[in-house]
From TrEMBL:
Record protein name field: Tyr recombinase domain-containing protein
Entry keyword Zinc: no
Acidic residues biased stretches: 1-11
Organism of provenance: Paracoccus contaminans
Presence of the UniProt keyword DNA-binding in the record: yes
Amino acid sequence: MLALDYEDAGGDPENARPGGHDFFFFFISGEEPDEEPEPPKKRHSRSASPKAPVAPSSPPDSAPLTPFGQSGPVKAVERPQRAAQTPQTPSGASPLIMDAVQRLSRVHKRTGRASDKSIEQFTGIAALFVEITGVDDVRAVRQHHIAAFVDAMDRLPPTYRRSAAERDKPIAAIIAEAEATGAETGLSAATVNRNLIQLGKVFKGAQSEGIRVDPSVNPSLLRRFEKKNAKDDRDPFTPDDVKRIFAAPVWTGAKSAKRRRDPGEIVVKDWLYWVPLIAAYTGARREEICGLETADIDEEDGVPVIIVRPNARRGLKNAQSQRRIPIHSHLIDLGFLDYVREQRMKDRTNLFHDLNRKSPKSQIGDSTAYLWRNIQNDMLGPQAKKSFHSFRHYAVQGLRAESDVEKHVRAELFGHLVGDIEDDRYGGRAPITALRAAVEALPRVF
């Protein structure tokens, strides 16, 4: 994780010198957890409300802490609204937090550095900070406001605002109810850290525009360190698990197209048939597979490949996630390339056209979750630490056991950084023949 450094400068915000209008972007570096990002929270409006207009927060250090920074009962408070008059700065850029976020988001969008979903998540995090602290002017933010933000995240239920009943409920009321009922509270360390990093981008972006930000404000000082090892988040499927999974009726014969869990003689080669097989033979993430387009299946030097890249359906986790993966010979034998040709002949852009998001905020792969969990339970029994993502761990561990597959080749196949600056920055792409040999080292699943 990247620790953000802040300018070692002081002074009155009103005396800040005009700055340029370039934007700086800061990204997480190093190893990152592989699980898919959780859906963004509800976006909060910045429009003025006749109920409780709030003037711009004043910059002095004596700004009072909200109830979130205190112990004891939490009082419900009105969500802060955008000021009627936008404060002026020497640079001419609005110092309101949500305005700064909007400007950053436009540049992220224009430069292709963020998808609509990640921009919505970024906006939701900033809105949550404004709601919790009551501070809507970036010049007024102090370190104790960041601490109050983290304190509130520790007291929020992990599923806050997921239900229709909570979508418009103030955060203070949600926390109060959780404490009164003894509900589970506390966002995960990964979520807290992600929110702090996104908040830091707002402050750096404002600084780059010539808006004075208190130099002592440093969200990274409050980042969390998980006690458990990242390797313990998910258990891999064992080779025996994989054999048992693909002995399910989906691949051996089902009762009918609608009764895929019951044994029979029907094999339907749709998303349910192909997506788990691709995961076992590529180690790709669920969303990377489910969001493939027919144009993402191509050929390089005569080798059929899956091209993992951003497309109209979904973005990617990070820059190194963009890669090409040779298609395993078993997938070809089973007719995967025929399936791709059929989708193209039907003028279908999406490879798995019958997989769609349940809602604008959900992921494409969420549509697979219920049926997949039932199939996994049918074949392996309930195992809380194994999920679809366990295919990725299975493939990674399988290739690590192959001494002939070099580390940089494995990293390129799975979209990882090697961890060596010489390889990560200056190393060339592995030849397609080396990548194909690595993929073929994964054993056939049936």
